[in-house]
Protein backbone atom coordinates (compact mmCIF):
# COMPACT_ATOMS: atom_id res chain seq x y z
CA UNK A 1 0.00 0.00 0.00
CA UNK A 2 1.87 3.03 -1.25
CA UNK A 3 -0.43 5.83 -0.14
CA UNK A 4 -3.35 6.62 2.12
CA UNK A 5 -5.48 9.73 1.93
CA UNK A 6 -5.86 12.99 3.81
CA UNK A 7 -9.03 15.03 3.29
CA UNK A 8 -9.92 12.59 0.53
CA UNK A 9 -6.70 13.25 -1.42
CA UNK A 10 -3.81 10.76 -1.56
CA UNK A 11 -0.52 11.39 0.19
CA UNK A 12 2.58 9.24 -0.37
CA UNK A 13 3.45 6.97 2.54
CA UNK A 14 6.79 8.74 3.01
CA UNK A 15 4.89 11.98 3.79
CA UNK A 16 2.25 10.29 5.92
CA UNK A 17 5.00 8.85 8.12
CA UNK A 18 5.94 12.42 9.04
CA UNK A 19 2.37 13.42 9.85
CA UNK A 20 0.71 10.38 11.42
CA UNK A 21 1.87 8.46 14.53
CA UNK A 22 3.15 5.02 13.44
CA UNK A 23 0.51 3.06 15.37
CA UNK A 24 -2.32 5.08 13.85
CA UNK A 25 -0.79 4.63 10.41
CA UNK A 26 -0.75 0.86 10.89
CA UNK A 27 -4.34 0.94 12.15
CA UNK A 28 -5.45 2.96 9.13
CA UNK A 29 -3.74 0.54 6.75
CA UNK A 30 -5.34 -2.46 8.47
CA UNK A 31 -8.74 -0.80 8.37
CA UNK A 32 -8.35 -0.13 4.66
CA UNK A 33 -7.55 -3.82 4.08
CA UNK A 34 -10.75 -4.91 5.82
CA UNK A 35 -12.89 -2.15 4.32
CA UNK A 36 -11.78 -3.09 0.81
CA UNK A 37 -12.06 -6.83 1.55
CA UNK A 38 -8.47 -7.63 0.61
CA UNK A 39 -9.01 -11.09 2.08
CA UNK A 40 -5.57 -12.43 1.20
CA UNK A 41 -4.12 -9.82 3.60
CA UNK A 42 -6.45 -10.76 6.46
CA UNK A 43 -3.68 -12.90 7.92
CA UNK A 44 -1.59 -9.77 8.54
CA UNK A 45 -4.56 -8.09 10.22
CA UNK A 46 -5.14 -11.14 12.41
CA UNK A 47 -1.47 -11.32 13.44
CA UNK A 48 -1.53 -7.68 14.55
CA UNK A 49 -4.81 -8.16 16.44
CA UNK A 50 -3.50 -11.29 18.13
CA UNK A 51 -0.26 -9.59 19.22
CA UNK A 52 -2.17 -6.74 20.85
CA UNK A 53 -4.81 -8.91 22.52
CA UNK A 54 -2.25 -11.34 23.93
CA UNK A 55 -0.75 -8.43 25.88
CA UNK A 56 -3.98 -6.53 26.61
CA UNK A 57 -6.78 -9.15 26.56
CA UNK A 58 -9.14 -6.90 28.52
CA UNK A 59 -9.51 -4.66 25.48
CA UNK A 60 -12.26 -7.00 24.30
CA UNK A 61 -14.44 -9.71 25.79
CA UNK A 62 -13.52 -13.36 25.31
CA UNK A 63 -16.19 -13.85 22.66
CA UNK A 64 -15.23 -10.64 20.84
CA UNK A 65 -11.56 -11.68 20.79
CA UNK A 66 -12.27 -15.12 19.42
CA UNK A 67 -14.85 -13.95 16.89
CA UNK A 68 -12.49 -11.29 15.58
CA UNK A 69 -9.39 -13.45 15.32
CA UNK A 70 -11.17 -16.54 14.00
CA UNK A 71 -13.40 -14.47 11.71
CA UNK A 72 -10.41 -12.94 9.94
CA UNK A 73 -8.56 -16.23 9.64
CA UNK A 74 -11.72 -18.09 8.53
CA UNK A 75 -12.28 -15.70 5.63
CA UNK A 76 -8.69 -16.22 4.52
CA UNK A 77 -9.04 -20.02 4.73
CA UNK A 78 -12.24 -19.96 2.68
CA UNK A 79 -10.56 -17.77 0.07
CA UNK A 80 -7.74 -20.30 -0.15
CA UNK A 81 -10.25 -23.14 -0.46
CA UNK A 82 -11.99 -21.33 -3.30
CA UNK A 83 -8.75 -21.30 -5.30
CA UNK A 84 -8.04 -24.55 -7.13
CA UNK A 85 -4.25 -24.26 -6.90
CA UNK A 86 -4.21 -23.24 -3.20
CA UNK A 87 -6.90 -25.60 -1.88
CA UNK A 88 -4.66 -28.30 -0.42
CA UNK A 89 -3.96 -29.52 3.13
CA UNK A 90 -0.36 -28.27 3.08
CA UNK A 91 -1.54 -24.71 2.50
CA UNK A 92 -4.65 -24.80 4.68
CA UNK A 93 -3.48 -26.73 7.75
CA UNK A 94 -1.18 -24.03 9.21
CA UNK A 95 -4.13 -21.62 9.24
CA UNK A 96 -6.36 -24.19 10.97
CA UNK A 97 -3.62 -24.83 13.53
CA UNK A 98 -3.43 -21.10 14.21
CA UNK A 99 -7.19 -20.92 14.72
CA UNK A 100 -7.01 -23.80 17.19
CA UNK A 101 -4.16 -22.09 19.05
CA UNK A 102 -6.28 -18.95 19.25
CA UNK A 103 -9.10 -20.86 20.96
CA UNK A 104 -6.72 -22.49 23.43
CA UNK A 105 -4.84 -19.26 24.22
CA UNK A 106 -7.89 -17.10 24.81
CA UNK A 107 -9.92 -19.73 26.66
CA UNK A 108 -7.08 -20.53 29.07
CA UNK A 109 -8.38 -18.21 31.81
CA UNK A 110 -11.98 -17.92 30.65
CA UNK A 111 -15.16 -19.84 31.33
CA UNK A 112 -15.68 -22.37 28.56
CA UNK A 113 -18.00 -21.14 25.81
CA UNK A 114 -19.70 -24.13 24.11
CA UNK A 115 -20.91 -21.96 21.23
CA UNK A 116 -17.38 -20.85 20.38
CA UNK A 117 -16.05 -24.40 20.58
CA UNK A 118 -18.92 -25.72 18.43
CA UNK A 119 -18.27 -22.99 15.87
CA UNK A 120 -14.63 -24.02 15.55
CA UNK A 121 -15.54 -27.70 15.27
CA UNK A 122 -18.14 -27.05 12.58
CA UNK A 123 -15.73 -24.89 10.61
CA UNK A 124 -13.04 -27.56 10.68
CA UNK A 125 -15.54 -30.12 9.36
CA UNK A 126 -16.59 -27.71 6.63
CA UNK A 127 -13.01 -27.17 5.47
CA UNK A 128 -12.37 -30.91 5.46
CA UNK A 129 -15.41 -31.39 3.23
CA UNK A 130 -14.38 -28.60 0.86
CA UNK A 131 -10.93 -30.14 0.46
CA UNK A 132 -12.22 -33.66 -0.17
CA UNK A 133 -15.47 -33.24 -2.11
CA UNK A 134 -15.42 -31.11 -5.30
CA UNK A 135 -19.19 -31.35 -5.73
CA UNK A 136 -19.86 -30.09 -2.21
CA UNK A 137 -17.26 -27.39 -2.70
CA UNK A 138 -18.99 -26.09 -5.83
CA UNK A 139 -22.38 -26.14 -4.09
CA UNK A 140 -21.00 -24.36 -1.02
CA UNK A 141 -19.43 -21.45 -2.88
CA UNK A 142 -22.40 -21.04 -5.19
CA UNK A 143 -25.24 -21.30 -2.66
CA UNK A 144 -24.04 -21.32 0.96
CA UNK A 145 -21.08 -18.93 1.01
CA UNK A 146 -22.97 -15.84 -0.24
CA UNK A 147 -25.56 -16.32 2.49
CA UNK A 148 -23.40 -17.27 5.48
CA UNK A 149 -20.15 -15.46 4.65
CA UNK A 150 -21.45 -12.64 2.46
CA UNK A 151 -22.33 -8.99 3.21
CA UNK A 152 -23.75 -9.63 6.70
CA UNK A 153 -20.63 -11.52 7.73
CA UNK A 154 -18.39 -8.81 6.27
CA UNK A 155 -20.34 -6.10 8.07
CA UNK A 156 -20.11 -7.89 11.43
CA UNK A 157 -16.38 -8.47 10.94
CA UNK A 158 -15.78 -4.83 9.98
CA UNK A 159 -17.65 -3.73 13.11
CA UNK A 160 -15.38 -5.87 15.29
CA UNK A 161 -12.23 -4.60 13.56
CA UNK A 162 -13.33 -0.98 13.91
CA UNK A 163 -14.16 -1.50 17.58
CA UNK A 164 -10.74 -3.06 18.16
CA UNK A 165 -8.90 -0.21 16.41
CA UNK A 166 -10.95 2.44 18.23
CA UNK A 167 -10.18 0.90 21.62
CA UNK A 168 -6.51 0.62 20.73
CA UNK A 169 -6.40 4.32 19.87
CA UNK A 170 -8.01 5.17 23.22
CA UNK A 171 -5.54 2.89 25.00
CA UNK A 172 -2.51 4.53 23.35
CA UNK A 173 -3.45 8.09 22.37
CA UNK A 174 -0.87 10.21 20.57
CA UNK A 175 1.18 12.03 23.25
CA UNK A 176 1.49 15.80 23.36
CA UNK A 177 4.67 17.59 22.33
CA UNK A 178 5.57 18.16 26.00
CA UNK A 179 5.05 14.49 26.89
CA UNK A 180 7.15 13.35 23.95
CA UNK A 181 10.00 15.72 24.82
CA UNK A 182 9.98 14.52 28.45
CA UNK A 183 10.51 10.90 27.34
CA UNK A 184 13.69 11.58 25.37
CA UNK A 185 16.93 10.34 26.85
CA UNK A 186 19.64 13.04 27.20
CA UNK A 187 21.64 11.54 24.35
CA UNK A 188 23.01 13.56 21.39
CA UNK A 189 22.39 10.60 19.09
CA UNK A 190 18.63 10.98 19.66
CA UNK A 191 18.55 14.21 17.68
CA UNK A 192 20.56 12.69 14.84
CA UNK A 193 18.27 9.67 14.67
CA UNK A 194 15.10 11.77 14.75
CA UNK A 195 16.12 14.22 12.05
CA UNK A 196 17.33 11.41 9.84
CA UNK A 197 13.74 10.93 8.72
CA UNK A 198 13.81 14.39 7.11
CA UNK A 199 17.31 14.12 5.67
CA UNK A 200 15.54 13.72 2.34
CA UNK A 201 13.31 16.81 2.32
CA UNK A 202 10.95 15.87 -0.50
CA UNK A 203 8.38 13.99 1.67
CA UNK A 204 8.22 16.98 4.06
CA UNK A 205 7.86 19.40 1.16
CA UNK A 206 5.07 17.25 -0.30
CA UNK A 207 3.28 17.19 3.05
CA UNK A 208 3.47 20.96 3.56
CA UNK A 209 2.45 21.69 -0.02
CA UNK A 210 -0.49 19.33 0.38
CA UNK A 211 -1.52 21.26 3.49
CA UNK A 212 -1.32 24.56 1.63
CA UNK A 213 -3.41 23.18 -1.22
CA UNK A 214 -6.13 21.66 0.98
CA UNK A 215 -6.24 23.90 4.06
CA UNK A 216 -4.75 27.19 2.91
CA UNK A 217 -2.01 29.14 4.64
CA UNK A 218 -2.11 29.54 8.40
CA UNK A 219 -2.70 33.13 9.54
CA UNK A 220 -0.14 33.71 12.29
CA UNK A 221 0.00 37.53 12.28
CA UNK A 222 -2.16 38.05 15.36
CA UNK A 223 -0.49 35.24 17.23
CA UNK A 224 2.98 36.49 16.27
CA UNK A 225 2.23 40.02 17.53
CA UNK A 226 0.98 38.75 20.88
CA UNK A 227 4.02 36.56 21.39
CA UNK A 228 6.68 39.02 20.30
CA UNK A 229 5.53 42.24 21.97
CA UNK A 230 8.15 42.95 24.62
CA UNK A 231 9.76 39.54 24.13
CA UNK A 232 11.76 39.98 20.94
CA UNK A 233 14.69 37.62 20.58
CA UNK A 234 16.61 40.23 18.59
From TrEMBL:
Residues 31-179 form the TERF1-interacting nuclear factor 2 N-terminal domain. Pfam families: TINF2_N (PF14973). InterPro entries: TINF2 (IPR039098), TINF2_N (IPR029400). CDD domains: TIN2_N. GO terms for biological process: regulation of telomere maintenance via telomere lengthening; telomere capping. GO terms for cellular component: shelterin complex. GO terms for molecular function: telomeric DNA binding. This is Uncharacterized protein LOC120020717 isoform X3. It comes from Salvelinus namaycush (Lake trout). The lineage of its organism: Eukaryota, Metazoa, Chordata, Craniata, Vertebrata.
Amino acid sequence: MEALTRNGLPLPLSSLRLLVPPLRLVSAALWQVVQQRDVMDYGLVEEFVTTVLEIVPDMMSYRERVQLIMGLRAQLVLELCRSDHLANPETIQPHLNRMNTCIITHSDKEISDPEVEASESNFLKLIQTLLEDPVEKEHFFQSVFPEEFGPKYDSALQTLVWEFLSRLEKLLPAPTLQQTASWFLPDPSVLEECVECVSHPQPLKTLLQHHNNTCGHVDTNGRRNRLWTGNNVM
